[in-house]
Specification:
By secondary structure, the chain is an all-alpha fold. The chain has four helices and no strands.
Length: about 110
């Protein structure tokens, strides 16, 4: 538990943590479906499709970090997340079901 002095110096608001996590999770879920559409149209199969998803999900997190998190940490203090693992890899498992669903749907539509 942080002390009162630490909280006065750098306050952490629980609502902000939840909002930031939810925003990132929504972005990752949406892009996972778009990556599934792309992988299905490209006709990727097996490990190629999963590597496609992994690479582009990490790229999305990196772009989100560069555009939204890094500039604000230089001027107005850091944006808070629960931890670096949640930021970089938390959305991988959340978006996986949507990715597989749209991947197989569009693969079947294009190849049929």
């Amino acid at each position: 538990m942080p002390s009162e002095l630490e909280l006065q110096i750098s306050p952490i608001v629980q609502e902000s943590l939840v909002h930031n996590s939810r925003t990132l999770q929504n972005l990752q879920s949406l892009t996972a479906s778009l990556f599934g559409v792309s992988a299905g149209i490209l006709g990727l199969e097996s490990y190629d499709g999963f590597l496609f998803y992994l690479a582009f999900s990490l790229l999305t997190s990196a772009l989100f970090y560069l555009v939204r998190v890094a500039p604000s940490s230089l001027t107005a203090g850091p944006r808070y997340f629960r931890g670096p693992f949640e930021f970089w890899a938390g959305g991988l498992m959340n978006g996986l079901a949507g990715f597989i669903l749209t991947w197989t749907l569009f693969y079947g539509l294009v190849r049929a």
